[in-house]
Amino acid sequence: MEKKRVIVYVDGYNFYYGLKNGGPKWKRLYWLDIVKFFERMMLPDQELVEVNYYSAIPLDDQQAADNQDVLFSANQINPKFKLHLGRYKKKKIKCQNCGFKIKTYEEKESDVRVATGMLTDVFTKRCDITIVVSADSDMIPSVEIIKNFVPEHPVHVFVPPTQKSFALAGKCDHVVWLGHYKARFVQSMLPENVTLTNGHILHRPDNWR
Q1: Residue 188 and residue 13: Cα distance in Å, rounded?
Q2: pLDDT digits (tens, 9 = 90+) for 40-89
Q3: H helices of 82-179, where?
Q4: Whether the Cβ atoms of residue 49 and residue 127 lie closer than 8 Å to each other
Q5: pLDDT tens digits for 112-129?
Q6: Residue 173 CB-half CA count within 13 A
Q7: Which residues are CB-neighbours of 46 under 8 A, at least 6 positions away?
Q8: How wide is the angle at C-alpha 135 spanned by C-alphas 61 and 96, nearest 5°?
Q9: What is the spatial distance between Cα 111 and Cα 135, in angstroms, rounded to a whole number?
């Protein structure tokens, strides 16, 4: 029997903070072989075509940026891993009580890139099943477009650990709560040292142990 082609779209910001909010027990799972993990989440009649991962480079934390770069480089060895980088934009928030302004950063472009990728792949028939990994209700409009124009196309949502998204889940054909699958995360870790095709060796960041 021919297997159903699956493409996964990961809201990296949402996925990372889902792990981070789980505390120390989940922290070591940052060092994840992302393709291997989602391959373990496939059903017997499904085949993973690719994982599209959407993120941005942190601007205010060099160590976080370096750790992220190592993780992405390790995962890019697998041709099924497709990285899409947006950007962070500086933003000032004013306290309504004291008027003090604090500087922060807002991730830009990722939601639009996820939506564009999902819609393009559905309408060009690159996949039989769409899986969006997020708890962000901003994903709802693209899911609604798919369900309105291609109602027979299944859209599944995988909600990151520690996150909740009943609004998004209610728009999808199937929901999986990834917090229930910690064992599969553990089974899908990258090796401590990853050798790139050019011979360079990447090491798991010390603060991810």
Answers
A1: 20
A2: 999 999 999 999 999 998 888 899 999 999 999 999 999 999 999 985 54
A3: 110-123, 140-149, 166-171
A4: yes
A5: 999 999 999 999 999 999
A6: 12
A7: 3, 4, 6, 129
A8: 60
A9: 12
